[in-house]
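Hypothesis: this fold can be encoded by more than one sequence.
Test: take the structure tokens below, design a sequence, compare later.
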């Protein structure tokens, strides 16, 4: 079976570009979803949230987080997920999926484990 991954991110995100390069250098098929062109679906984000929690998906250091004044925001997980669908620049990138395996942010050690299996 050929290993393939799905990467959610933006072309401007350096971590997303690093992830793309990591897999390309290992000749692993990448399906890239540019979140500026097509937002991640609520169902897709829920999958990551179930594994890591909604807070792990949010990048509080992002410019968009500050622009929206979210530093003191108190929202339910469901409201955060809705906001992440609307505002993909709030996401910690990249979100990487290989089958049922998921990672948030740069996770090269975990990606190497996927290839070792």
């Amino acid at each position: 079976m050929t290993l393939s991954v799905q990467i959610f991110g933006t072309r401007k995100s350096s971590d997303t570009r690093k992830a793309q390069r990591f897999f390309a250098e290992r000749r692993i098929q990448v399906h890239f979803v540019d979140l500026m062109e097509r937002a991640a679906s609520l169902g897709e984000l829920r999958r990551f949230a179930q594994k890591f929690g909604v807070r792990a998906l949010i990048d509080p250091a992002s410019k968009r987080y500050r622009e929206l004044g979210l530093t003191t925001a108190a929202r339910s997980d469901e409201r955060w997920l809705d906001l992440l669908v609307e505002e993909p620049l709030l996401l910690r990138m990249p979100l990487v999926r290989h089958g049922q395996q998921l990672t948030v942010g740069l996770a090269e050690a975990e990606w190497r484990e996927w290839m070792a299996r």
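The first helix runs from residue 14 to 25. DSSP finds six helices and four strands in the chain.
Hypothesis status: open.
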